[in-house]
Structures are given as structure tokens and as C-alpha cells.
Amino acid sequence: MKLLNLLTSVYLIIIMVALLIGGFFIYRKLGDEIDFELGMELDRQIEAYAERIRQGVSPEALVNERLEIKELPFQLDEENLSIRDTIAYHDPLSREEKQLKASKSFKIENRHYRISYYNLVIEAEDITETVVYTMLVVFFIQLVFLGLFFRGISNWILKPFQHTLQKIQQFNFQTNKPLYFEKSKVTEFNHLNEFLERMTQKLLKDYRQIKEFSENISHEIQTPTAVVSGKLENLMNSEMTEEQAHLIYAAYQNNERIHKIVKSLSLLAKLENEEFDPPSQIDLSEILEKNIALLSELVVLSDLKLQTEIRPKVMVKIHPFIAEIMINNLLGNAIKHNFKGGWIKIQLKLDHMIIENSGSPIRQDSSELIQRFKKESENPESVGLGLAIVNQICKTYKFGFGYVIRDDIHTITIDFK
Amino acid sequence: MKILLIEDNRELTQNILQYLSHEGILCEVASNLFEAQDKILSFEYDCVLLDLMLPDGNGLNLLNIIRKLEIRPNVLIISAKNSLDDKIRGLDLGADDYLPKPFHLSELLARLKAIYRRSKFSGSDEIQFNEIVIQLQNFQVNVHGKQLELTKKEFDLLVFLITNKNRVLGKNAIAQHLWGDYTDNLPSFDFIYQHIKNLRKKISEAGGNDYLTTVYGIGYKFGETQS
Question: Is the pTM for the entire model greater than 0.90?
């Protein structure tokens, strides 16, 4: 939801609630006020009639459909003005109507009269109608102004913010340029922009350092391991006892391991830093078929049954080199964590790939095996980075990655989306 | 075979010299671009082993000079910079092969000999080891004139073993040669064992001698047995 839309909706809801509450009070106040004014008017009328009786006009001559004069016993006290609602016949409308009746008694020349005067009441529905109408008018006027405000004025006020947002979205490590913003008149925006400028500078510096480090490490460690490996190979070809042979071999094996770890870690670093070219659409089916062909010999040697279901021409956005690493790691795992006479099932559909294999139930949680250097087998040749690499590849290319182990079936699913 | 090794790391140079000298390969050394250029222009070599990162520049520059020579030596790039770009550029500029560091010396020898054979005999030569004759261009192996039915990997393994005859080949080196990085996290030693077993069986069934020995469980050696 856009910020402006959210603000508008919240604002509209608040206005609506305010208008409802306001309407209720206006309705109450309006009703009271009308009743009060009407009472006053009736009082004046009654006083006027009383005055006329005092002047000697016979009360019978005054009576009409709105006036009622009743004689009361003289010993009763004079009644004060009382006003109450009543239902009475209303001539002009020819029906019973709610009316307001005001009564007051007067003692005029030894006689006691109660004068009652009726008048039509303004009905509640009429007041409601007026109030609702007024509120609606106010509401629509608000709506129009709100619209104008958000379309024009807010866009103008929020422009620097939108601008900042746009720049952040365009920021990437490859272009290697920190963000710079124009000065805004709003302090908060300037604070934000200054912070972003500092942060992007720091980010780029860190990124460059990591990149240099991963480049250096692969070169600086490769050379000594190459030297060690060569020395050991030459040593292997000199006269040696069995004991020496095992020492040499152990050193040689571990040197190989260092090489593999450095290679895998520098690949992981490269993936995390998104150093590979932007991916293009490639034919994953072709790469998968090619890798299966390369590994089929190992499948046969491991005494496994391979079942494939590959849809041709599945195009996926990924760097071809990375695709090969991913497939190689997955197929390698399926072969490695299997047993003699087991099976592997490979399925490639338009939007996902499933690699399933028989294997032994594992002791660890499958999510743990994805982590670096977590491995199930005690095989010294395995470094424990295979799944971590696949997982990182999926993160980098925004693929879904799932690893489920049910009983002794391992299933890896990759969603291309 | 006479080669020029262009490499600035002295230890690495020594390793290579030691391994290759056993094969009777004449090896000269240049430790920087300037020296290398001088030697290439003055002498004739069958092959140049070229490191890319040299103290006075990128080894790729040398490829332009080599291309213009009348008698062009083969070039095998050895580089610690295992980058795809370098590999493609190197091969584009006329290099024959690319071997990323760290490599096994046995692999270096195998590649060197393969390049040499390709250029000298255009691949149509034979490798012979006593009764075993390998015809490289049509992947045929004869023992006492009898043809062996070998798989592609068994054939590759045999060629690799004979190329590095009388040397101890570590299992890692064999795995790397046969499968490249594919077996990085696979129990590849079991696979090697099976291939070796099959190869032995096929050679002996054809009446050949068993030249394969296991060296203290660390690797294999192909050659005349002393006993």
C-alpha cells in the first residue's frame, strides 16, 4: 500500500468518526434548543391569552383547536408553566400528531383558569435529516480538499522522500558509487539522506575489502598449497618406507582439503557479493542432461538406479557456470548419501526441479545440513559446503529451496518461480 | 622435448623441474615477462608453460609475441587465477590448454604430453609400453595385437598411467584427471578402485602382464615390477 493511500484512508476514517460523534451532539443540542425556544413561544402565547382574560374577554370566546381553557377550584395553588409532549388531533393535517403542550394556571378576578396551548413539534426525523445532510456536505467538502492536498501538496512535500527512495532502489554494488542527495528544506529528510550517504559509503568500502580479501585469499593460499602439493608428489616418488608413505599421504590429503575449502569459500563469497554477471536465460534442461551424462558412469559404479523425467527447453535465469555448480553439487550429494542398490529420481519441470534419492535416515535436522561445515557423513573427502553453496545460489537467484527427509528418502526441491 | 617454464615462484618452479626432468624433458626457466620474451625470441621451444601473474605484467601479453613467431611453440597456461574470463581469453589468444593452480604434477605432465602429441603427430601416434599399444586417435588399445574393450574412462586412466609410468600417482591426482572437479565431494577413491580392477582384469585376460602396483594404499604405479 502506498504511504499516501494509507494516510488518506486513516484520515478519512478519523474524519468519519469525528463527524459521527459531532453529528450526535449537534442532533442533541439542536433538539433541546428547538424544544426550549418552542416552550418560550408557548409561554408567551399563554401569557397573552391570560392578559386578554384579565382585560375581560370571556374565556369561552378565546378557545380554539390549539387553546384549551379549564377552570380549576380556586383554593388550588397557581400552577407554574409545565411543558410536555402529547399526542393530539391536528386539524390542518387531519391526523393525530405529536404535539407540545404548555400549561399554566392563573387566578384572575377570583377565578382560577388553567390555560393550555398546543403546538406542533419539529419531529426527530426532520432534525436527523438536517444533521445528516449537513454532515455529508461537510464530509464531501473535506474529501475534495483531501484529494487536492494529497494529489498536489503532499506530492510536492514528499518529493525529496520519493527521490531518496528511488535512488536507494537503484543502488547496487557493481556500479560502485555511493549515493548523493540534493539538500531538502525538511530537516528530517536531510537527516535521512545524510545517514544514507554515510551508510552507502561504508557499505561500498566494506564490500571492496571483502572482495579484495576473497580474491587475495584464493590466490595467496592457492600458491603455497600448489607448492606443498608438488613437493609431496615428488616425495612420493622418492624411496620411502611404508610409514613415511602414510605420513606423506596424510599431509597430501589435508593439503587437498585446504584447497577445496578455499575454493568453496571463495565461491560462496563471490555468490554473496553477487560478483557474477547478471544472469541470462539459459536452457537448464541441456545443462542437466549434460551433467547427468557425465555422472551416469559414477551412478553405475555406485550400483544405483537412475530415473529421469526432464522437460526439454526449460529456460531459467541463471549464470551457466553457477547452474553447473548447483547441479553438480546436488547430483553429487544424491550419489554420495546413498547406498548400494539405491535409487535417484531427477525431475525437471517448467518451474521447478526435484531431486530425490534413497539414503539413510539422518541424525541431524535437515535445516542444519544446509549450514556451512555441517555434514552427516564422516567421509574426509567431503568438506561440508555443498548444500551451503546450493542454498546460497538459490538465495542469490531468488529460487525457493526445500530439503525434506522423510524416513530414508531425501528430497530436494528448487522452485524457479 | 624442450620447454620453457615461465613462473615467478621459485618453489613451484623447482617442483616442476624435478618432476619433468625424470621424464627426460629439457626445461628452461624464466621468472619474469622480460626474461621470457628474451628467451622465446632467441631459442626454439616445443612448449611454453606460462604463468599469468608475473611480477612485470600479465602473461597474456606474451601470447601476442608467440603468435607472430615463425616456429610457434605450444602454450599451456598455468594460473592461480582460476577465472573463466582468463581461460577464455587465453585460449582465444592461441594458448593450447589452461591448467588452474594448484595442479598435480602428474596432470601437468599428462597435459604437456597430450599437447605435444597433438602438435607433432596431429594425434595419430601410438603410445607403446611393452605389449600394450595405444592408438590415441581411435581410442584403441591392443595387447599382443588383441584389441581390448575399454570404456572411455578406462581408456583415459590407462593413458594417464602410462604417460606417468614408473611414478606414484596419488588417488587425488587420478580422480582429478578422470573427473575434474566433479568428484570434489564424492567418494571417488572407490570409483578409481573399480576402474583399476576392471582395467587389470581386461589386460590380463588379453594375456598382458600386470604392471599395476598399489603403493602402500596411497596411490598406484604403472611400470615394470622389480620382483
Answer: no
